[in-house]
Specification:
Shape: globular
Largest sheet: 5 strands, antiparallel
Strand order of the largest sheet: 1-2-3-5-4
Number of strands: 5
């Protein structure tokens, strides 16, 4: 999983040009996405993550950005924010889909062990101690809250 939509080299260059980026040196599909096509793109000076949303529309992506803006405003250390285009927009449109570009963060998928569980617990504690502002979407609107789990 992780590469449902496969952009061509021409497509990638067009998307990157919207951000004033490029040309790229290399790109590779990442296999860890659940509902997005994710690509690691290497530029001459940095690496980026190009995300194409395969299942969400612009309204859903704007709601995600609203949440990311909130986390950024709260200096939440475990969140990222998409790159802006010269126009100030963060979203791009591609083949009736929407996408975002982020700085690429090198890493690995952590194994479940005591140290990693502690780090996850500490991050969740910080997240749950944030005072949400109005206008953030509810968790029930994007996934399985308690009611949906019970119904399932």
């Amino acid at each position: 999983m992780g590469a449902f939509t496969k952009p061509t080299i021409k497509d990638l260059n067009q998307i990157l040009s919207l951000y004033g980026l490029g040309p790229f040196k290399s790109f590779e599909a990442l296999g860890h996405g659940i509902s997005n096509s994710n690509f690691k793109v290497e530029l001459s000076d940095k690496k980026i993550l190009l995300k194409i949303s395969d299942d969400k529309g612009e309204a859903d992506i704007l709601a995600e950005i609203n949440l990311l803006e909130f986390l950024k405003s709260q200096n939440f250390p475990h969140s990222i924010y998409p790159l802006e285009r010269p126009s100030g927009e963060v979203i791009y449109h591609f083949q009736n889909k929407v996408g975002l570009i982020f700085n690429f963060i090198e890493g690995y998928i952590p194994l479940p062990n005591e140290e990693n569980c502690k780090k996850i617990g500490e991050a969740l504690s910080k997240l749950h101690n944030l005072k949400p502002r109005s206008g953030l979407r509810s968790y029930e609107s994007v996934g399985y809250g308690p009611r949906k789990i019970i119904q399932y």
